[in-house]
Write a structure and sequence with these properties.
The chain is an alpha/beta fold and 264 residues long. The chain contains ten helices and eleven strands. Strands 1-2-3-4-6-8-11 form a seven-stranded mixed sheet, sandwiched between helices. Strand 2 and strand 3 form a beta hairpin.
């Protein structure tokens, strides 16, 4: 697999292996989601959006935390206006991840609390270390999640399960997070990035345009009524039938060989 030299922004590093970008948050000791980290992540995904090589992104953290919340000292310096501005900046960054053309896999290496749990939920797929810990503990600080916690959690979990976590601020381990559907796979500690790379390789075997459309269909459809979502899905299906990749995929199927997709 071709590998490019890693690039570094302060707080965030990026390494590209083949068609996969590995984005690593590095803000010791707990990778707190400060305004600076938020801006670095936002800029990183803007850069990756322009990179025609990248077709999967893996997001992880350095050290013992994925992201263990925000820099809570800042809360004492914020009034209503500053707090809303701070929360919206994190939300906008997460929307860049959620709306990124290609799949984003969270390789959750450790604590994913508060803003870290929200960040993981903005990704398409979550692979967690067996040592990872999840939670939305904001109520213990007198606030609520401000960047998607109260909205994405009940979209991933049954509403009652989501409310139990939100109302108590309880922290749960990786196995419980997998049991209730907050994460998709739990793997031995230290293997989460490799497992994400393995999944990325599987994903990259499929037709690139179909992959983009599949993400678009799921994300947009979840914001629509079922009737409108089904119409959108049919439209996207029809568009794909005019791509070269469909012709190649069908021909490869009948010839019993691996397809050679060109992404057009």
């Amino acid at each position: 697999m071709n590998q490019s030299a890693p690039t570094e922004k302060k707080y965030v590093g990026t390494a590209i292996e083949g068609h996969t970008a590995i984005v690593t948050i590095d803000n010791p000791p707990i990778n707190a989601l400060s305004p600076e980290v938020t801006r670095a992540l936002s800029d990183t995904f803007e850069d990756l959006k322009r990179n025609e090589l990248v077709r999967v992104v893996i997001l992880t953290g350095k050290g013992r935390a994925f992201v263990a919340g925000a820099n809570i000292r800042l809360f004492l310096e914020m009034d209503r206006e500053k707090g809303e501005k701070y929360a919206l900046a994190v939300t906008e960054m997460q929307q860049k991840i959620e709306e990124f053309n290609w799949p984003v896999i969270a390789a959750i290496n450790g604590y994913a609390l508060g803003g870290g749990c929200e960040l993981a939920m903005a990704c398409d797929i979550r692979i967690a270390s067996s040592q990872a810990v999840f939670g939305q503990p904001e109520v213990h600080l007198g606030v609520i999640p401000g960047a998607g916690g109260t909205q994405r959690l009940p979209r991933l979990l049954p509403a009652g399960k989501a409310k139990m976590l939100l109302f108590t601020g309880k922290q749960i381990d990786a196995s419980e997070a997998e049991r209730i559907g907050l994460v998709d796979q739990v793997v031995p500690a230290g293997t989460e990035v490799q497992e994400a790379l393995n999944l990325a390789r599987e994903i990259m075997k499929v037709a690139p345009v179909a992959l983009r459309f599949a993400k678009k269909a799921v994300n947009r459809g979840m914001q629509m009524s079922l009737h409108d979502a089904l119409l959108m899905e049919a439209t996207l299906f029809g568009e794909l039938l005019e791509t070269e990749d469909v012709k190649e995929g069908v021909q490869a199927f009948f010839e019993k060989r691996e397809p050679r997709f060109k992404g057009r």
